[in-house]
Design a protein that fits this description.
By secondary structure, the protein is an alpha+beta fold. It is built from 19 helices and twelve strands. Strands 2-5-1-6 form a four-stranded antiparallel beta sheet, covered by helices on one side. A two-stranded antiparallel sheet has the order 3-4. Strands 7-8 form a two-stranded antiparallel ribbon. The longest helix is centred in the first third of the chain and has 57 residues. The radius of gyration is 43 Å and the shape is extended. The two termini are 69 Å apart.
Length: 668
């Protein structure tokens, strides 16, 4: 008997077997088995599914026929010796070769791992070195080469407070490099606007990033971040005020602050935007939580419920029906915050809405007046009298005559006990409507004090006068200044050539010399070193001032109304907290109070508390906190900063190897 063995693609196995059967007329015996693993084809180098076959037959001619058929089907025939000794030797030889190849592969893999491990250990150092070299040569490309003196000259900005440190660094570099000629540092006088640089630390850096996101402060301009450190978390606390929720935010921020090294490393490793923002703004979160607790104590809210820290000043008659009725003692006042006696009273909601609405107006007007005050300081620092008298003064008059008066009426209304005087408290909404619609007349339901009509008419007249003042004064004064600088101020006083030719020539010469010596210097200093004045376009200045004036007048109304979001979000926060408590926690507590077995009380209470914690954390401490954060951000960017902030400066970016490496990490 003869035999043929080999390997064939699995897809051709059935057809191969049929052709063999027909060619030998059934005089053959074939066995086949599919190979489980993919086999690489020797010719195409592709992985394929193959099967091994073994055919037994009789006759030498049948061998040649079957070999040709196998080759035609693309099978690979292998020599399989007939004697057992040869087969054993061939198997031993194959196993030995496989073992040698296995050792070689293991050695190559181990060598690769060792090489890659050593490269990975040095990869960070290589990247840092490449980043430094790249940044160094980019900076050197900005230098100028002086061919006459054979030196490199660089012009750069440096904080004035670090001049001595820079000189000391140059001396150290000269000493370490062994240079024979020291580096020279000269301070240049320039009319170019310098970049803006502020020293920040880990507490103030998050607030400065908020300001820089809106716009980098102009050089010499007051930095709003100094005020945002307090006003931003405070306004957030006004909207998010709750002792319980504020304590949760404070605890989370304290954890980030205590483990800041570990959390910074975690954020750098994960590179997740949310985690990075939370870690970098950990001290901002801490202040937000503290102010939320403070405002929560003012509101007397703990997870939406009224707390009794110092004992209420009111009695309940009858208890739990109708709420508080009488004071425990005449003139008794709750020491701090809202008296818990308002809880469950008939007018709890209307009282809370009225109180928080007026508080929002007071805080909004106070912050906008702070912005106006900062604009005054900016104008005084720039020695710009035109901005003081043509922008700040009319803007302050307009703001104070309307909204400052509204704040005065709020405090005046709060200062009087209308119940003791047996009078109905006046409506401030009616007062504000009559202030504009019927000046000189005060309805009975809006009267606060005697002589109110004359005061309101005077304030309304001041507001009307401030609008054209704001609109026309600055463009007209700028036009007058331009004409005076152009030489048309004293044209009629100049002598003519017919009257006195010598005097006329002398006047022209002196005027020309004066313009060349003084005016050109002043023009150059005000135009960033340019020796010519910019073109004066009165129509463009007038249009700009009209837009600015209309924006301010309408903005005073819209911005004041925008601060009512403090009241709206505070109300929504309290009501949402109460809904979670009453719908999730109150039913299990009521079932426990009704009595029954401990299991019937513990199981619903456990699941109810778990659901309440999840809802409080996910919706209030995450989503509601993000909403309050965004609203506080809008109040600072739009309502506060548009009163004084230009935000068109250039940020000072010093040459730093560490910054280059961090930027490379961010790019990847």
């Amino acid at each position: 008997l003869g035999y043929v063995c080999g390997v064939l693609p699995t897809a051709r196995l059935a057809a191969f077997e049929r052709v063999l059967f027909r060619a030998t007329r059934g005089n053959m015996f074939m066995r086949s088995a599919t190979i489980d693993q993919l086999v690489r084809d020797p010719k195409t180098e592709e992985l394929q599914h193959k099967a091994v076959f073994l055919i037994f037959f009789s006759g030498q001619q049948s061998f040649a026929r079957m070999a040709k058929i196998a080759d035609a089907f693309g099978a690979h025939r292998y020599n399989y010796p007939a004697k057992y000794s040869k087969r054993a030797a061939l198997l031993s030889q194959a196993l030995t070769r496989l073992d040698e190849l296995s050792h070689v592969i293991d050695h190559v893999v181990a060598r690769k791992e060792a090489l890659l491990s050593s490269l990975a250990a040095r990869h960070g150092a290589w990247r840092t070195h490449l980043a430094r070299q790249k940044g160094l040569y980019n900076a050197l490309n900005l230098w100028n080469y002086d061919l006459t003196r054979k030196v490199l000259i660089a012009e750069a900005w440096c904080p004035a407070s670090m001049i001595e440190e820079t000189q000391e660094a140059l001396r150290r570099a000269t000493s370490r490099s062994g240079a024979h000629v020291p580096s020279i540092l000269n301070v240049l006088e320039t009319d170019e606007a310098p970049p803006t640089y502020f020293r920040v630390n880990k507490v103030t850096s998050a607030f400065q990033e908020i300001i820089d996101t809106y716009g980098v402060p102009r050089y010499g301009e007051i930095n709003p971040a100094a005020f945002t450190v307090i006003t931003f978390p405070f306004l957030f606390g006004v909207m998010f005020g709750d002792v319980g929720h504020g304590s949760m935010v404070t605890a989370f921020a304290l954890y980030l602050c205590v483990n800041e090294t570990k959390m910074l490393a975690l954020s750098a490793r994960l590179r997740d935007d949310i985690i990075t923002m939370a870690v970098r703004g950990r001290y901002m979160l801490l202040l937000m939580g503290i102010f939320s607790i403070y405002c929560g104590v003012l509101y007397n809210d703990v997870f939406g419920l009224m707390a009794d820290f110092f004992g209420t000043s009111w009695t309940e008659t009858p208890p739990r029906h109708g709420g508080p009725r009488e004071l425990k003692a005449h003139g008794m006042v709750y020491p701090f915050g809202i008296d818990p006696g308002w809880h469950r009273s008939a007018n709890e909601l209307s009282f809370g809405n009225s109180y928080k609405m007026k508080l929002s107006i007071v805080l909004g007007v106070a912050q906008m007046l702070l912005g106006l005050g900062i604009s005054l300081v900016n104008a005084l620092a720039a020695r710009n009298a035109l901005d003081v008298w043509c922008d700040f003064v009319p803007q302050a008059i307009f703001m104070l005559s309307i909204f400052g008066y509204l704040v005065f009426c709020i405090f005046y209304k709060w200062s009087i006990d209308w119940v003791a005087e047996e009078r109905v408290a006046p409506s401030l909404i009616t007062l504000l409507i009559s202030f504009f619609m019927s000046p000189g007349e005060v309805p009975a339901e809006a009267r606060l004090y005697a002589g109110q009509e004359r005061v309101q008419v005077l304030l309304l007249l001041l507001a009307f006068v401030a609008v054209p003042w704001m609109l026309l004064a600055k463009p007209l004064l700028l036009r007058r200044r331009h004409l005076a600088r152009a030489g048309y101020k004293n044209v009629a006083c100049r002598p003519t050539a017919r009257d006195d030719p010598a005097a006329a020539r002398g006047l022209l010469r002196s005027t020309r010399d004066h313009d060349t010596d003084e005016d050109s210097v002043s023009v150059a200093s005000s135009n960033n070193g340019k020796a010519y004045a910019e073109e004066f376009d009165f129509s463009e200045i007038m249009v700009h001032q009209v837009i600015h004036s209309i924006e301010y007048v309408l903005g005073c109304v819209s911005n004041t109304a925008s601060y009512l979001r403090l009241w709206a979000l505070s109300l929504a926060h309290k009501q949402l907290s109460m809904v979670f408590w009453e719908m999730v926690m109150l039913p299990p507590l009521q079932s426990c109070r009704a009595g029954g077995s401990s299991w019937r009380c513990a199981v619903p209470l456990f699941f109810g508390f778990a659901v309440w914690v999840v809802l409080t954390t996910a919706i209030i401490c995450c989503m509601e906190m993000l909403s309050a954060f965004l609203h506080a951000l809008r109040l600072h960017w739009v309502e506060f900063q548009n009163k004084f902030y230009k935000g068109d400066g250039k940020k000072f970016v010093p040459f730093s190897f560490q910054t280059m490496v961090e930027n490379m990490d961010d790019e990847e």
